[in-house]
Amino acid sequence: MGKKLAVLLLTLIGLTVVSGGYIVGGLQAYSRYQQAVGQQRCGGQKPSHICVQAPAEVFSAYYPFDLSTRTNLFTVTYSSSSPLTLIISVGVVGFTQVETRTVTATTNAQSSGFTPALLDQAVRKSTSDVTTSLRVRVTDTRNTLYYFNDSPLLLHAHQLMQWVAANRLKIAAWVTPDDPMVIALVTRAANLLAAQTAPTPLAMIGYANRASPQEVRGQVNAIFDTLRLDYRMRYSQESVPYNGPGDTSVALENIKLPSEILQQRSGMCIELTVLLASAVEKIGLDAEIVIIPGHAFLGVAMAPDDKQFQYWDGVQVNNGVAGASANIFANQEYSANARKIVDTILIKAARLQGVGPMV
Q1: Checking DSSP bridges between strand 234-235 and strand 266-267, what pairing results, if any?
Q2: Which residue in 278, 179, 180 sits closest to 220, CA to CA?
Q3: pLDDT tens digits, residue range 34-77?
């Protein structure tokens, strides 16, 4: 009898744990569903009726892309039982400016989309996830208040990358060629290059003067060597959680900006790759980010719009390897993993799709 009771008790505990797991999983799934759908808040003083549709979370790294592509993140739907001129003001507290629009409300519901301009340095200053609010204010021309609401909004730090197929090109936002610290890196690399012998070019000329593949490699090697010698850059291992355009999963990863990598003098593979790509783009070369299972490295076209690429892997900064040798190693790495390549993201292609530098 005692054994049967013990077995029954263990069975009940097991069922409780399993059902609890399903409940937790269900709650998490529902939470993700709510975030995907967003939030809607309605109200308004008569005769108006106002509804605000907004996402529950915003990735600050992607906001410049939304601005450049005129993607409406927030939607205000309005109507009035009698014709009414309304002034709609929308802004994310502490992150954007206030965007204001004058509309005429009628009995037919109408909608206006908003993506307010950023405050100065807002993305760079977004260094941790914060809960702020979407502030929407609706008045008439006499400043009579018809609607006011602060909707909670989770604003993610600029380091946060959401690895999902739809965002693949947005990794180019981390490639920031005009950052002052990237420009300083290029200047140091140019000084290193000038001390080398021909046929290496005496300056960072990109593809100018019909630069030969050897001259192009020499420029990238100088950037790599500058990171190794001047900055004493270190590679820190961490996997890239992205499995390619066909992947349906979603993974999050914190990725430092090139300026942050240069300050800390350490970065994982994707960080060192976007840093190298930033310097490469600054001097006018075409860069790509190559992703193999769990890892990323840099590719550089040997001529404008060329399909012939050479490769560099940031891992080699830890091994005291010169840029030229790192280039040989990465070329071999590319060949060995040619059938395993998860994705290749050309920075120029991302720029054409509206993905500009984050800062």
Answers
A1: parallel
A2: 278
A3: 344 478 999 999 999 999 999 999 999 999 999 999 999 999 99
pLDDT for 174: 98
- CA pair distance 283, 205, nearest whole angstrom: 6
**What's the rounded Cα separation, in Å, for the pair 40 and 54?**
6
- This prediction has a pTM of 0.86
User: Can you tell me whether residue 56 is helix, strand or coil?
Assistant: coil
pLDDT at residue 31 greater than cutoff 70: no
| Complete DSSP assignment for 110-171 | EEEEE-PPBPTTHHHH--S-EEEEEEEEEEETT--EEEEEEEEEEEE-TTEEEE-GGGGGGG
Residue 228 has, within 13 A of its CA and on its CB side, a CA count of 22
CA distance 197 to 201: 8
Tokens for 119, please give them.
Answer: 């405050």
Name every residue whose Cβ is closer than 8 Å to that of residue 53 and which is 6 or more positions away in sequence: 38, 39, 40, 74, 75, 76, 77
Q: What is residue 14's predicted lDDT score, i.e. its pLDDT?
A: 43
Looking at residue 302, its amino acid is M
- The answer to whether residues 246 and 165 touch, using CB atoms and an 8 Å cutoff, is yes
Domain 47-156 has CATH 2.60.40.3870: yes
Residue bearing tokens 């050309």: 346
Q: What is the pLDDT of residue 199?
A: 67
CA distance 297 to 277: 10
Rounded to a whole number of angstroms, the CA Rg of the chain reads 26
CB-count exposure of residue 16 (10 Å: 0-12, 13-18, 19+) = exposed
For the chain, give percent helix, strand, coil, nearest 5. 40, 30, 30
Q: Which two tokens stand for residue 268?
A: 């994982």
Q: What is the pLDDT of residues 184-197, one digit of tens each?
A: 999 999 999 988 77
